[in-house]
Amino acid sequence: MTDTTSQPIPERQKGNLFQQLELDLRLLGMIGAFVILCIGFNILTDGRFLTPRNIFNLTIQTVSVAIMACGMVFVIVNRHIDLSVGALLATTSAIMAVTQTQILPHTLGMGLGNPAIWLITLVVGLTAGTLIGAFQGWMVGYLSIPAFIVTLGGFLVWRNVAWYLTDGQTIGPLDSTFLVFGGTNGTLGETTSWLLAALAAALAIWGLWGARRAKAGHGFPVKPAWAEATLCAITAGAIFGFIWILNSYHIPKRRLERMFEARGETMPEGLEVGYGLPVSVLILITVAVVMTIIARRTRFGRYIFATGGNPDAAELSGINTRRLTVKIFALMGFLCALSAVIASARLSNHSNDIGTLDELRVIAAAVIGGTALSGGFGTIYGAILGALIMQALQSGMAMVGVDAPFQNIVVGTVLVLAVLIDIIYRKRVGAK
Amino acid sequence: MTRNPKRAAGETPLVEMDDVSISFGGIKAVDHVSVDLYQGEVVGLLGHNGAGKSTLIKMLSGAYQKETGEIRVNGQTVDIQNPRDARALNIETIYQTLALADNLDAASNLFLGRELVTPLGLVDDSAMEAECRKIMGRLNPNFQKFNEPVSALSGGQRQSVAIARAVYFNAKVLIMDEPTAALGPHETQMVAELIQQLKADGIGIFLIDHDVHAVMELCDRASVMKNGQLVGTVEIDDVTDDDLLSMIILGKKPGEEAA
Q1: Can you tell me whether residue A367 is helix, strand or coil?
Q2: Where are the alpha helices (DSSP H) in A266-320?
Q3: Parts of chain B with a pLDDT under 50
Q4: Which residues face A321 on adjacent strands?
């Protein structure tokens, strides 16, 4: 009892290759499933699936659901659910559409095409989303109404608030600067994309190195140097490979000609320009990084997981679980609004059915990504991979020519199977 | 065993719960009960299941809010609205359920609600694990599973985490709600040694326990409750096991005629 020596740190155990690399087996499994899916579709479509063009489209189609899935991970980990995300997306999209096409240019007399419109619209939309989310969170946290009920009500309310705000009409075209967030209309070009890739790779390696130094600083065992170097190489390779694919998708010739004409120039003969990284994908990557840092390295994130694991323990540890709930739903609302920006900009207008069924896609993406509905477990990268797998399935089947009813039957089956596999995996590794 | 010197000297008690009550749905779970605790003293709380021991103590740890009465710490009236308030007064609790988040590792549980952070305000897991290893080296040298969720730990190991959490943060008042209920004989002995050591450090301890023998061995005084009311508080040196048992079962203080 009197000695103050610290608990000895065990020797690093030798293991197989995966253990040495400390890679998450679940992550590898999901990446494996995704790769097999892509290769399968590629064979079935005679090589049309894995073209730069299709991969480009796949990523910009995934962004909206993937961003919301990041927020849904926090909601579900905290033992709640949000059924209103698609409707909330519609309401914030409607608010932003009305703001940028009617209120700002006409009612406030700023005129169409005013360069401040997109920014004000963005602030208005994101604020509205955050406030609506916080309001729903307040009802869940402080009034103790189950989240299922609050957001089921929200599902009906916000879908129809959107309808009321727009009289059910399609509103467009949206502000030209605003469209930059949509995908094809807003890409960074080849050079900027390469520079960003270099920056991202450098940051990732710096992050890995920092984590290693922090561990070593306390005398904890670290991975062998070769394993760390391999991880760095894989990470950097993935980043540069992704950018290389996006840069390989060239802007169609006619479109490029029109872009030159718009600037009053003529296009040089034989010019080829790649799209590069879409702004919307850059936003998704930023959201993913920030949310991962929140989940793993902030008190807020730690409390979300602790409350999901044992709400009573969290409360007795002095965590204000009610306020935490409000924060989580506010964040969810913010991300819905962000998705609304990207979804409406991609379509270049607000339509009355925007975001329909998104709540189910978002929940499915989070669950396929390994988020446990019983709370306490879930990862951001898993949810994004889940969204990618769903989108790949959907567009792959469309390309192969699978009948529409069968597409949904397959997606539904995959959802249930994914959860079954996850349960079996958890039992095998002995985790609860 | 000598009487507590602080109490003998007539000093202000560390904690006084004066005439506190709470009811749930019309039933008085705790009915005008008064107990106190001095520095370096162990006061046992005894009684049947449902006698109101845990409820009484939860008003001190902030899990429940009292309806009547007053709580004083070092003579100052305090208002404990939630567990954060209690922790701010250096009142730490080891709950019967242990109150651990099963999906987090030992260090995360140890520092839950009071995480160590880096200068950037980010949670510093390496520093917390290092601190966790230090205190575990002191409390339970067999403890090794630092990188696994606490759901993977044995009952004794989980108990160690809960105890570590209470003693790490310089507790002045420690509430232990049946700390040995899930433990084997060896681990129970360790908890007993720990209580002696903490007592020597001047910490005041409320010990809720079913085991009369453990109370006789570890406590200076014992307060017995029955049906939400205080039967009485006695000096352990003045009573026998049987006296305590008759207080628990019959609700009569020693010397009173059993009805």
Answers
A1: helix
A2: 279-297, 299-309, 311-316
A3: 1, 258-259
A4: none
Question: Per the CB < 8 Å rule, is A214 touching B126?
Answer: yes
Distance CA B79, CA B149 (A): 35
pLDDT at A125: 97
- CB contacts, 8 Å: A377 with chain B: 103
Q: pTM of the entire structure? A: 0.90
Sorted by where each starts, the structural domains of chain B and their CATH numbers stand as 1-90+170-259 (3.40.50.300), 104-168 (no CATH)
SS3 A209: helix
Q: Does B116 touch chain A (CB under 8 A)?
A: no
Contact A4 B138 (CB under 8 A): yes
In one-letter notation, the amino acid at residue A36 is I
B123·A314 Cβ contact <8 A: no
Task: Using an 8 Å CB-CB cutoff, list chain A residues near B114.
Answer: 318
Interchain contact A296–B (C-beta under 8 A): yes
Q: Do B130 and A218 touch (CB under 8 A)?
A: yes
Q: What percent of chain B has pLDDT over 90?
A: 43
**Inter-residue contact A305 to A77 (CB < 8 Å):** yes
* The predicted structure's pLDDT at residue A4: 47
CB atoms B83 and A317 under 8 Å: yes
Q: Which two tokens stand for residue A171?
A: 């509103």
pLDDT tens string A253-304: 888 888 888 887 877 877 888 888 999 999 999 999 999 999 999 999 999 9
Q: Does B11 touch chain A (CB under 8 A)?
A: no
Q: For A156-200, what is each residue's pLDDT tens digit?
A: 999 999 999 999 999 989 988 899 998 878 888 888 999 999 999
Q: What's the token pair of residue A385?
A: 């991979």
Whether A431 has its CB under 8 Å from any CB of chain B: the answer is yes
Q: Which of A7, A306, A307 sits opposite B137 (nearest CB)?
A: A7
For B171, the token pair is 């507790």
Q: Which residues pair with B46 in a beta bridge?
A: B224
Residue-wise DSSP of B228-252: TEEEEEEEGGG--HHHHHHHHHH--
Q: Could you tell me if A137 and A312 are in contact, meaning their C-beta atoms sit under 8 angstroms apart?
A: no
Cβ atoms of A308 and A375 within 8 Å: the answer is yes
- Structure tokens of A105? 């240019």
Low-confidence ranges of chain A (pLDDT < 70): 1-23, 430-432
| Whole-Å CA distances, A387 to A46, A72, B153 | 24, 12, 35
What pLDDT does A11 receive? 59
Let me know how long chain A is: 432
Positions of E strands within A186-311: none
User: CA A369, A375, A379: angle at the middle one, nearest 5?
Assistant: 30
List the domains of chain A with CATH numbers: 17-186+278-429 (1.10.3470), 187-277 (no CATH)
Query: CA B207 → CA B47, B79, B97, B135, distances in Å?
Result: 12, 22, 15, 22
Cβ contact A171:A350 at 8 Å: yes
Q: Is A127 exposed, middle or buried (0-12, 13-18, 19+ CB in 10 A)?
A: middle
Instruction: Give dist(CA A260, CA A71) in Å, integer.
Output: 40
Q: Which of B203, B213, B205 is nearest to B36 (CA)?
A: B205
User: How far is it, in rounded angstroms, from Cα A199 to Cα A197?
Assistant: 5
Task: Label residue A159 exposed, middle or buried (CB < 10 Å: 0-12, 13-18, 19+).
Answer: buried
In A348-403, which residue ranges form alpha helices assigned H by DSSP? 358-368, 380-400
pLDDT at A3: 43
Task: Assess whether the previous peptide bond of A252 is cis (omega < 30° from 0).
Answer: no
Strand B229-235 versus strand B221-226 pairing type:
antiparallel
* ipTM > 0.85 for the complex: yes
